[in-house]
Specification:
three-stranded antiparallel beta sheet, alpha+beta, about 575 residues
Length: about 575
């Protein structure tokens, strides 16, 4: 069985029909009825498959330069050409071979046997099952899986791998990385095709070299890219780490920290993931610790990284999934960079690639950020979101970009301040002593989540207003209006949530004096704290100017004859 050449992947075409194809057919019927999306049984597997396809295109068809990238955007390879490009890779993507097998340890013959459910990151661990604590995610909820989807799940685990116990290594980006993909936005009457979604995340030679500069391009053998083609570097002692210079830069797309070998059974049945009949099923795998221990300045093109300007020699830290998911408070760091965070290389390249800017000038684009929120070995949740991305033309003043990012920072800071005030006020209402340990330990994160989610749409409206200032004659007035709208929206939502959680009661014992005093204090704080004063400066100056203009006009109209005293 081969994950590249065998038909196993269900996709949706532009006419909304569902068909099963091989990966060699991703550009089939591109001019008439292109593939617009893949159907995966789980969102984490879908995201991982996008990463796999991007990696394949990066290996088989890296553009020579930015112009070559643009040419292939406008004239993609047809089905026969794509097969020609990918055919040399087909032998390396067998999934049930006795020798090298896709994402599986080269020579692992024996190890700890585990059920196939353990291949999924959220699966309860052995101790959880032993203690009968698998209350929410039950044991054996996945018992048998179609071989192709088992291989896809294995790739997902290797890509997002968290800590798995002694010697069970994390992925090349650390445990639970936040993957960022750059996509054209689907329109109701014309969805973007899959080629466009993938190709936007493929980098030209110069950009992939700049991103993965610690890798060794001279290591051109495929076993320097696909780690399952050679024995694993056993990491059971000091000095056994796997460094970027030991691999080709594109190794990051196929990194393999876990030593796993899938156990195939000649057994017919229903796949637990898809609910479809399969002639062959996977029920378990064997694993062993001390696999590839990735260390050093590894950088993945699909991940944002935090750099320490005080320690430039230190490797960057990949951005991970966060509690509550990815929302507008992360938007600036994911798009333009902020607080020592550099966006993913596929996003950052847009700031400098003239060809991409021209081709995408009239298209709406989004960022798709996805990943696990991990608590060490435990997956708390899977989060994904799409955020708008705004492309500035080449001729725009760099100073405007700096002003824009500074203004967006103010928007986010003000939102955080209001959210903090809301949480503090609710805590004051719910506890007799808000400074007590019980009050401090109370989990009020649901307030932050609700506040952020309910103001997210307004945030992007305001950001779009600020972005469009660069070509408007009334730039100051637009900024002033944006500031007013944002603060009004935050105030409204803050008070709505306060009323919901503090004024609504069924016990009849509410201290109304305390409620209204706290509510009044909250309103006053929102008007007076320093962070909000920064936002008010956007429009209060405009208000003062308007008043002065009106006074001048009034003075002019009162003068009869003679010269008006300016």
């Amino acid at each position: 069985m081969n994950i590249l050449s065998d038909p196993w992947l269900t996709v949706i075409r532009a006419d909304k029909t569902e068909v099963t194809i091989s990966l060699l057919e991703l550009t089939s019927q591109l001019d008439t009825n292109p593939i617009v999306e893949i159907l995966a049984p789980r969102p984490d597997i879908k995201n991982a498959l996008y990463q796999l396809f991007i990696g394949l295109l990066q290996v088989a068809n890296t553009p020579k330069d930015n112009l070559n990238w643009a040419e292939q955007w406008q004239n993609p390879p047809d089905e026969s050409h794509l097969k020609e490009l990918l055919s040399p890779l087909v032998p390396f993507f067998e999934i049930d071979a006795e020798g090298p097998a896709f994402m599986q340890d080269f020579d692992l013959k024996e190890g700890e046997e585990k059920p196939i459910a353990a291949l999924f990151i959220e699966a309860p661990g052995a101790k959880t099952v032993k203690d009968n604590l698998d209350h929410f995610i039950k044991r054996e909820h996945i018992t048998c899986v179609d071989p192709y989807w088992a291989a896809a799940a294995l790739y997902t685990l290797q890509s997002f791998a968290p800590s798995g116990g002694v010697g069970h290594r994390v992925g090349v980006r650390g445990g639970g990385p936040l993957t960022t993909l750059f996509l054209p936005k689907d329109q109701p009457d014309q969805p973007a095709n899959l080629w466009q979604k993938l190709w936007l995340n493929v980098l030209p030679e110069n950009e992939i070299a700049a991103c993965c500069k610690s890798g060794d391009y001279d290591k051109s053998d495929y076993n320097a890219i696909f780690p399952w083609l050679k024995p694993t570097k056993i990491s059971d002692g000091k000095g056994t780490e796997l460094l970027p210079g030991e691999c080709h830069p594109l190794h990051v797309f196929f990194a393999m920290p876990r030593r796993i070998r899938i156990c195939f059974r000649k057994q017919r049945g229903i796949c637990s993931l898809t609910g479809k009949q399969s002639n062959k099923l996977v029920t378990g795998f064997i694993t062993k610790n001390y696999g590839n221990n990735y260390s050093g300045p590894w950088v993945h093109p699909l991940n944002a990284y935090r750099y320490d300007p005080k320690k430039p020699e230190e490797p960057p830290l990949s951005i991970k999934g966060q509690p509550g998911g990815v929302h507008y408070r992360h938007w600036l760091s994911q798009t333009f960079g902020h607080d020592n965070i550099q966006p993913a290389a596929v996003v950052n390249s847009l700031q400098y690639d003239t060809y991409k800017k021209l081709l995408l000038k009239n298209k709406e684009t989004v960022l798709w950020s996805a990943g696990y929120d991990m608590d060490n070995m435990k997956a708390r949740s899977w989060h994904e979101s799409t955020m708008p991305y705004y492309i500035f033309p080449d001729n725009i003043d760099a100073e405007f970009i700096r002003e824009f990012t500074a203004d967006v920072t103010v928007l986010v800071d003000v939102a955080k301040t209001v959210s903090d005030l809301l949480r503090s006020s609710v805590r004051k209402m719910w506890f007799k002593d808000p400074s007590s340990n019980a009050a401090k330990k109370a989990d009020l994160s649901f307030l932050d989540d609700s506040f952020t989610q309910n103001t997210e749409k307004k945030f992007y409206e305001i950001v779009k207003m600020l972005k469009n200032r660069y070509e408007a004659e009334n730039s100051k007035e637009i900024r002033a209006e944006a500031g007013k709208k944002w603060l009004t929206g935050l105030q409204t939502e803050c008070m709505r949530l306060f009323d919901k959680w503090c004024m609504s009661t069924q016990d009849g014992q509410k201290d109304l004096h305390k409620v209204f005093d706290t509510r009044r204090s909250l309103e006053n704080f929102i008007r007076s704290v320093n962070e909000i004063k920064k936002l008010k400066l956007w429009y209060e100056n405009e208000t003062v100017n308007t008043i002065n203009v009106k006074k001048t006009k009034k003075k002019r109209s009162s003068v009869k004859g003679g010269t008006v005293n300016e």
